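User: Hey, quick favor. My workstation is busy. Could you predict this chain's structure for me?
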Amino acid sequence: MSGGEDFRVRVVEAENVTPTIRRLRMLRCDGGALPPYAAGAHTVLTLETGGPKLRNAYSLLGSTLSGGAYEIAVLRTEASRGGSAFIHAAVGVGTELTLSTPVNLFPVHHLARRHVLVAGGIGITPIAAMAAELSAMNAPFELHYAVRDEALGAFAGDLALRHGAKLRLYVSRRQERLAVREILQHQPLGTHLYVCGPERMIEAVLGDARAAGWPEDSLHAERFLAPAGGEPFAVRLARSGLMATVGEHQSLLEAIEAAGVDAPYLCRGGACGQCETTVVAADGSLRHHDHFLSDAEKAAGDKIMICVSRLEGRELVLDL
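Assistant: No problem, here it is.
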């Protein structure tokens, strides 16, 4: 229950931007307009893989206020539960998919005096959209993009053409390192920082900014965590009286949806807090993987983010 409408779409373009990143361009099957969105928004794609139905969140490339096509870029990961592998192997031009109304938890703050955009790897997708939006508005920004290998840097060439000297590319194999402290120390008061990429990079960038005295309301990060796998366990929904089994590679949220309960969610990545659910009882240990609950709330054990966290044990009873 994302709070929005789902749309049936058809893939009209599909290409491997790099050996591990596949870009899809999609239009509505019925010819209608898709909802407009701003840079930083994501959509949830429903994937009928032949196994359990997967719903994964993907940042939208570019930005549109006119209801045009949607584009996403998908990284094939070794730890995939099947979604990215399915998109790389089975989704091409003509494939029909279902996607949700966009949600934006990572917007550009237009009152900022200046914008520093930092991306690592596939984290470039929302950051590239922000750069495009800021460029169109003639707003001051700089873009720092760290990749392991230049050949694996999705859209690096296109970004260089679009943004010229505003783009700084850091290639690990050339021993080029993203020096965040140096980047931040010369920014004017009122600058906002946006970062998306691997978790360790996000924490390092935010840590450097906090150490330099940047206020929290100037720091913005986008995290989409994949649900952690684990041993299967039972979930009982106290209010609806339903029972379900959470599979080895299935999230609690997916198991609850499969049981027919329309549970709340927005990001499906442990960041927004929309799916916070009260724990009635737990025969086992909660394994929290989200970035929303505090350490004290996690230790209390009476709440769980059902999109990414799970139980290590026999049965979990939830207030649903």
